Structures are given as structure tokens and as C-alpha cells.
Amino acid sequence: GIGASAHEMLPIMESLSLHYRVYAPDLLGFGLSDTPDIGYTPALFVALCQDFLRDIVQRPATLLAHGLSCNYAQAVAARSPELCTSLVLLSPPTSSNQSPRYPLLDRMISRSTLFGTFVYALLTPRIIMRQIVRPLFNEKVTSGEDSNYAFAAAHQPGAQYAALAFITGKLNLAVRVDIPSQPGLLLWQGEPRIHSLTQHAVNLPHIQAIFLNDPHYRIHESASQKVVAAILRWQETLQKEAPVTVGIQKSVAENASGRTSYPLPDATPLESKNASVEPVENPQPSDVKMRVDTPPN
Predict the structure, then answer these.
(1) Distance between CA atoms of 78 and 83, rounded to whole angstroms?
(2) How do 260-261 and 253-254 pair as beta strands?
(3) pLDDT tens-digit series, residues 112-151
(4) Which of 29-33, 61-65, 128-132, 205-209 is least confident?
(5) For residues 280 and 244, what is the distance between their CA atoms, to the nearest angstrom?
(6) Is 173:75 a contact under the CB 8 Å cutoff?
(7) 94, 71 in Cβ contact below 8 A?
(8) How far is CA 101 from the centre of its chain?
(9) What span, in angstroms and rounded, lies between the C-alpha atoms of 292 and 5?
(10) Which residues are within 8 A (CB) of 139 and not within 5 positions of it... i.e. 6 or more apart?
């Protein structure tokens, strides 16, 4: 989306880096990555992630993704299983409709680069960006360092190309969530409207689904401690039960609407070092921060 970058992952990166070596690349066209004027497609991002894992990480890894990137992570896991040991999907899409959201806007932008630049200019003044991102972020992001970072990322030269592809739906990728055979953890901010495909996913024996009681879409920011605690407990369970895959919790409760909810285990304070996760050597300093100069308004 507009102003999106790896910076939003800092709240969970800093905690996870105590237990794992963490990589957080900016996808091409977003954040501080290169922003070439090319045709941005899901296939491009899936190939980019595969190359990054193969050439930079150079070992099988747990893939963690949020939103639409969850579909890219699933595609990577299905097509290159040797690169992925497990999946953590935060607020994965719950709609099976992957067609472009605004076909008329897409056609107009495709026909006129000038029109696309004009649309992007209308969406990226600071006051407008705050209104656009406010429903997605927790309250603190609408001001301060995080807001400045999003504004700066949105105003990198060429940032409009990938963002407009996202807005018009060109980056949508439909995948069958039951294809990857690796264990998966699905974390939603609340009980989503589940269509038949997602319902099938949460019933798979190697998938665990957790619904957090949090109103924000970016749960990795608004509920970072709960997210990290759930990931560490899930990984610990995988290690104990290996090679048996973890299944979804069987103790469920039905709410007033008749839907089934899956309770979140009691959160363990991150300060306690009780999580029996084998640490790895981390070459990064613990206080690593992403920095960017904020361009003038």
C-alpha cells in the first residue's frame, strides 16, 4: 500500500531477533527499495522472494507475512518447499475474489502515466495519508516517527508505480491456502468472515489458527507482544512434536452467532526467557533501527 515498508515490522522484529536471525526486505517498488517503472505483478514478487531466500538467507526459513503478502509467502512455500520450513500469516486475505478492485481506474491509469501521477499526488499529502492509513495502524502511528517514515517511503522517487499497481488490484494473487504442506500459523485480529476456502485452511491438521481480540488490522504493531508470544509458543510446539505437524486446537467455543472461535493461549511476558527456543548468533545490534530522511512537504 501507500507508504508501506519493512519499517512496520520493527515492533516484532526486535523481539524475534532475540531468538532468530531476522530478515525484512522491502519489496521492489516499496519502502527504500529500488522503484523502477516496470509492470509490477504477483509473479515478480514471488520470484523476488524466492531469489532472496536462495541467494541471501541461504537456508530454509520460516516465512512471516502480512496481508496480501501472505499469498506471496504461500506461493513461495508451495513452489520452493526446500526454502521454507513453516509459515506465519498475519491477517491473511479472507476474500476469494482476487479480481481488480477498480477496473475503470486501472484502465485510465494504464492509458495515461500523467493521470496516474495525478491520482497518486492526490493521495499522498501528509494530511490525506493520515486519513488513509488511520484505520490500518494503531493510534501511535498517525504521528511521530512511524508516520514520518510512511510519508518518506511514499515520496521516494518512483514510489507511485508499485503503489498504483496495488491500488488497482494488479498485485492480487489467488492461491489455494491448502497447497503448502509446511506447518502454518494463522493470526487474525478478530474472527474474520471466513469463506469456504479459508474455512478449509483452518481445518487442515498442520494449520493452527488464532483470533486475537484486537481491533487493528496491523496486529504486528498494535498487539506485537501477543503476536511474538504466539509465534514462540507455536515454534516450541513444532520442535517438541517434530516431525509430527501441529494441528488446530480442539477445544473451541461457539459465540452467539454460531461461529467457532479458537482461544488464544495465555500470553507469556516476553521479558521471561522461558521459551525453549534455541537462539542463533545474531550479527545485528539489538538496538538496530531503520532510518530515513523525511523529505519536505
Answers:
(1) 10
(2) antiparallel
(3) 677 888 888 888 888 887 776 655 554 444 446 778 888 8
(4) 128-132
(5) 23
(6) yes
(7) no
(8) 20
(9) 12
(10) none
| 94 touches 195 (CB < 8 A) | yes
CB 102 within 8 A of CB 164: no
What would the 3-class secondary structure string for the chain be? CCCCCHHHHHHHHHHHCCCCCCCCCCCCCCCCCCCCCCCCCHHHHHHHHHHHHHHHHCCCEEEEEECCHHHHHHHHHHHCHHHEEEEEEECCCCCCCCCCCCHHHHHHHHHCHHHHHHHHHHHCCHHHHHHHHCCCCCHHHHCCHHHHHHHHHHCCCCHHHHHHHHHCCCCCCCCCCCCCCCCEEEEECCCCCCCHHHHHHHCCCCEEEEECCCCCCCHHHHCHHHHHHHHHHHHHHHHHHCCCCCCCCCCCEECCCCCEECCCCCCCCCCCCCCCCCCCCCCCCCCCCCCCCCCCC
The three grid cell numbers given for residue 288, joined into one nine-digit string: 538496530
Decide: 269 and 15 in contact? Cβ < 8 Å: no
Among all chains, which residue has been given the C-alpha cell 481488480?
100
Higher pLDDT, 48 or 267: 48
d(CA 226, CA 12): 10
Q: Which residue has the higher pLDDT, 76 or 92?
A: 76
In the numeric block, the cell 486475537 is attached to 212
Q: Which three cell numbers stand for residue 46?
A: 514471488
Nearest residue to 230 via CA among 210, 253, 246, 205: 210
128: which 3 cell numbers?
Answer: 490525506
